[in-house]
Amino acid sequence: MASWRWTRRRRGDDLGSGLAQPTLTEAGTVTGSRPDDDFEHIATTVGVPWRGFEVRTTDESGNDAPVGEPGEVVVRGATVMRGYLDDPEATAAAIDADGWLHTGDLGTFDAGGYLRIVGRIKDMFIVGGFNAYPAEIENLLLGHPAVGRVAVVGMPDERLGEVGMAFVVLAPGAELKPEHVEQEIETWFGREFRGAIDVVLCRRKECGPELFASRGIPRAKRLTCVRYVLKADQ
175-182, long-range: CB within 8 Å, 24+ apart, which pairs? Predict the structure, then answer.
């Protein structure tokens, strides 16, 4: 499915600023920062749709997702690919009859029209009927001073269908003892965010030939977390 590549261009002589120009492999650059954007928008969003492109976030019925609500990012424009070479099935799954490229990414639009990528559809899990997004939970858990790296996956649960399981790598110099990690972080998360999550201290030492371990969490060569490896270990 579609994947984003990121570039940052310097703006004038100001070394502290730049322009975000994410690029979709299957469509090219369809969004980007404006020259007068502030640092927060440049750092936390993929910008606004560029002229000549249509970019939407849609719910499961194909309707536009409300402002601030996650939906699948779909793209239409002149540079969207015609299809995958000699693979009509993959092409049909990626591009619908109206010419929209379904990226598989989850994103939100804010009131100003800026798009944020919040995760991947395949990583989402459902807890008691509510959608849960690993990237959002990971960002919350990173607020704990002892958490250096974290990866969240959905795991089967008899009562709720699925629950979140967080694999945690301690931050360098963390004072929290390994044997206290699970209880401390679970309690902190529940107190701060009124939610519950199972926490596992990552002790992974090595991965398969196509992966490499980064302080315990398996990551692909593009430095994205390989969640299916973590799920398979449980």
Answer: 175/146, 176/146, 181/146
Farthest CA pair distance, the chain = 58
3-state SS, residue 92: helix
68-93 pLDDT per residue, tens: 999 999 999 999 999 999 999 999 99
- Which long-range contacts (C-beta less than 8 Å, at least 24 apart) are formed by 145-149? 145/171, 145/174, 146/170, 146/171, 146/174, 146/175, 146/176, 146/181, 146/184, 146/185, 147/171, 147/185, 148/172, 148/174, 148/215, 149/202, 149/214, 149/215, 149/216, 149/217
Written as one string, the DSSP assignment of 167-210 is EEEEPTT--S-GGGHHHHHHHHHHHHHS---EEEE-------TT
The most confident of the ranges 8-22, 88-102, 144-158, 173-187 is: 88-102
Q: What is the pLDDT of residues 49-65, one digit of tens each?
A: 999 999 999 998 999 99
Report the predicted TM-score, pTM, of the whole model to 2 decimal places.
0.67
Q: List domains and CATH numbers for the chain.
A: 4-119 (2.30.38.10), 124-233 (3.30.300.30)
Please tell me which residue, 7 or 144, carries the higher pLDDT value.
144
Residue 227: pLDDT above 90?
no
